[in-house]
């Protein structure tokens, strides 16, 4: 286990010592996205866990499925190596199946924080990389004919607090002045027209930019069906309990599960919030943070909302949602209720329970916030929790695990995996298959997992 201990967090002056590994809960809340289960949901390609494999992927969410997809694609007509994917619970039952359905680059909003840590050039690089994913996911959906309710749209970030609106209006102008190219795709609407454009009561300003939304579980399960058909061995309900500290004499990694040990030449940790449990050097660098999401249905007619949305009322006070073609709204956040007590969300992997103070936030949500929804009868249909992997330096961890030849990681997406995973997994697949260095992949260098990052004791995590 990592011996380093983070100092006092900017959120909590008393600090938060080294975080203990945390196992998966035995049960979990039911998200809307898992109400139409795929035939592979509890699939095991073989009755027994294989004793050995060339490549072992731990995790069957978007990261694991996309990595497997790109690996299989890269081999083409070549003979496929033995690839095994293990999943602790059901297929795609973690964060991917519990999110808000967005493919949403954060563009301008995270720019000030990232620029303060890494500089404007890197902040722009991250934003541009995320923007690429909107069309990259669209291209994948069209290429593979994936039925996942994909919709190309625009995100509309609406500020409903004047002081907060002023802060980001000024930040928007500063980003433009810096020459950042990402900001060209962002449109600002000021106080005169913000309420009319957004439909949000009391809107002070809004920012719109390219985005998409989809049914994430269906996207991932389609990818899994493609790779399983090509020979990938999927083993659900097979939690990894530990990974050997060193390779054996044959250069294999022993990966232990309750169903036996599998010896793998290469191991990919696509485990996001749960990474530290089996790769302890990440225990206090990728922190599990629990969130809440819900589905709101409307029995009557309601105004059509053409965009996806975030409502921002201040630091640690925001919501996000998508408007689905079936008329329902998937909305998450409730940040004032979640963030008020650290123990409710920070270093919490239990998605079997709802953050109870937040439940009330979604009752009457549309009626309170949107024009024309007052008499619609919109109400909460489902509510669930999910666990995200936040990194203490706010950058994802991608690449070969430091000091562990043949181990790779794709994790720690800070609640924004959907606009980062598809292309990072494609690059990671070339590292796993062809031995490419991280530098040769062309990924933003800030995402490279390094010993220096693991040794960095600063903690920038905040629920914003």
TrEMBL record:
Pfam families: DAO. InterPro entries: FAD-dep_OxRdtase (IPR006076), FAD/NAD-bd_sf (IPR036188). GO terms for cellular component: cytoplasm. SUPFAM superfamilies: FAD/NAD(P)-binding domain. Gene3D superfamilies: D-Amino Acid Oxidase, subunit A, domain 2, FAD/NAD(P)-binding domain. It comes from the Eukaryota. Residues 54-429 form the FAD dependent oxidoreductase domain. Residues 1-25 are annotated as: Disordered. This is FAD dependent oxidoreductase domain-containing protein. It comes from Pestalotiopsis fici (strain W106-1 / CGMCC3.15140). The lineage of its organism: Eukaryota, Fungi, Dikarya, Ascomycota, Pezizomycotina.
